[in-house]
Structure formats: C-alpha cells, structure tokens
Amino acid sequence: MPARPPVMLERLRRRVLGPLFDRLGYDLVPAAPDWTHRPTSPREVSVLLDDAAAILDRDLTAAGLAPDRDVRALVETFWTLIPEAPVRQRRGGSGFNGALQLYVAMRALRPRYVIESGVFRGLTTWVIRQACPDARIYCHDPDLSGLQYRDRDAVYSRADWSRADWSGVEPADTVAFFDDHVAQGRRVVEAHARGLTRLLFDDDAAGHRIHAHGGPAHPTIAMITDPGRTPEPIRWTRAGRSFEQATDDALVARAAGLIARSHAFDDLHRATGYSPARLTYVALHPGGAEGGR
Q1: What single DSSP character describes residue 7?
Q2: CATH 3.20.20.140 fits 35-288, yes or no
Q3: pLDDT score for 161
Q4: Which pLDDT tens digit goes with each residue over 229-278?
Q5: Helix (H, G, I), strand (E, B) or coil at 290
Q6: 215 by DSSP, 3-state: which?
Q7: Domain extents in the chain
C-alpha cells in the first residue's frame, strides 16, 4: 500500500491548510488512490470480486471480446496487483474501476503493440504493462512532467500520436487507447486512416451526461453512435462555460461510417463502490470499408 503522509503534514493539512482552502472554495485532500480503501473480510471481498466479474463478463461478450482466462480469475489477479501501483492520484486519471476495466480489456485484446494517447501520471501505462507484459507500448502526451511511473521499455513522445510514423507497427496487432481529451470522432478518423481497427476510449459520455465531465472530448463515441440523435445541437454548460456539439456535422457523419461496433462498459460502481468508470470499446471497419458513406 502507498505510504501514509507524515503525521505533522497531515495535522497541518487538517488544522491550517484545509480550513484556508475551504474559505477559498477549494478542497485540500490527501492524494490517496481510491483502492487504498477496500474491504478486508473474506466474504465481502469475494462478493465484490464476483459482482465485478459478472458485469465485466457481460461487457466483454457484448463487445465481442474473449479474455485469455476466466474473468473472475482476472479480477482477482488485478485485486492483488493494484495495491502495488506506483502512482498516487485522487483526482484526474483512472481510479480502481477504470484501471480494472482497462486491465481486463487488454487481457482480452492481447495486443503486440499499444498506442496510448494521454498518459497523465502513468497509471494506465502501468496497468497496460501488467496486462500485456510483452507488448511494445508507445506513450504520447504533450506534458510528461507529471509522470510518477515511467515504463522502462515504452517509447515516450510529447508529439501527438497522429504525427508519428507507424510504418513499423502491424495494425492488426495494435490497440490504441485514447484518454487525451481530444474529440473522439477525430481519433476514430485518424485511427482508421492508419489501418487500426481496435480502439479503447476513456471518458466517453452521452449528450445528456457530458455536462458532468471535465474537458469533454466531443463529439464522443456515444454521440456519434446514438441511434436517436436529431438535427438539434447538443448544448451544455460547465464551470461557467457554454459548449455546443452539432449532431449532423461532417466529423460525426464521417466517424459514424467508420465504426463497425461499439460498446460502453458498465461503470462498475454498483459492484465495487468505487468511482464510476467510462471505458468504451470501438471496432472499426477494416481497410476503408465505410458503411456510412
């Protein structure tokens, strides 16, 4: 487990810094990952793992993915791994549920190459490495200064992934994972142009829920694939700013024609009690077969 903060620092936070930040309208909390809070009695641990595995098994089936092991065994393995994660984060990045979904999805996809766009502190890179110990991982993020985990075998770049040379990577053996707050429709188009067909997206949000997300990467997969979308634009406000996404623009139409299948995973909160996750698997038509042209 991650070490607890020093006693004197914690007292300072509670008695001085915390009240000061409260008056300024901010919360000051320890950077303790959510997985440091967990059941310890055998029955409760078993119920949590059973329930999470049942949900994930249904999600994998709906996504058309088959893991290399029993899903319950994968969940239990992850449960033992996550306390050793070298990244401490409370806000931003993935929590327990998102990391678990990514781990199980990568075990089902079994890629030889992984393109990760959006690295943040490095937790998802660590999760990918645990799931795919032999994969070649390419990590792209414009700011790598906050890394708490740097994979010794990964290739790091501050350039956008779409500007890299992928001629040495076999598209059929590659999975791209996007957690970069860039329009998901754009990422679909870019991935298809490079021959990729297997994509994972974090922070996919439907139009009626996107107001709850920071840095919305719209148009999202949910917006693009919504069978009930109308010509009316989707509008919302967040933190005093107004946003709008047209539902009939060229990017939405283009991306919709490239997607062969998509599935948004259950958020797992009801099974684990941890903060909801928002992972979506997308399979693209291969070789330019665009059904929506």
Answers
A1: H
A2: no
A3: 98
A4: 888 999 999 888 898 999 889 999 999 999 999 999 999 999 999 999 98
A5: coil
A6: coil
A7: 1-30, 35-288
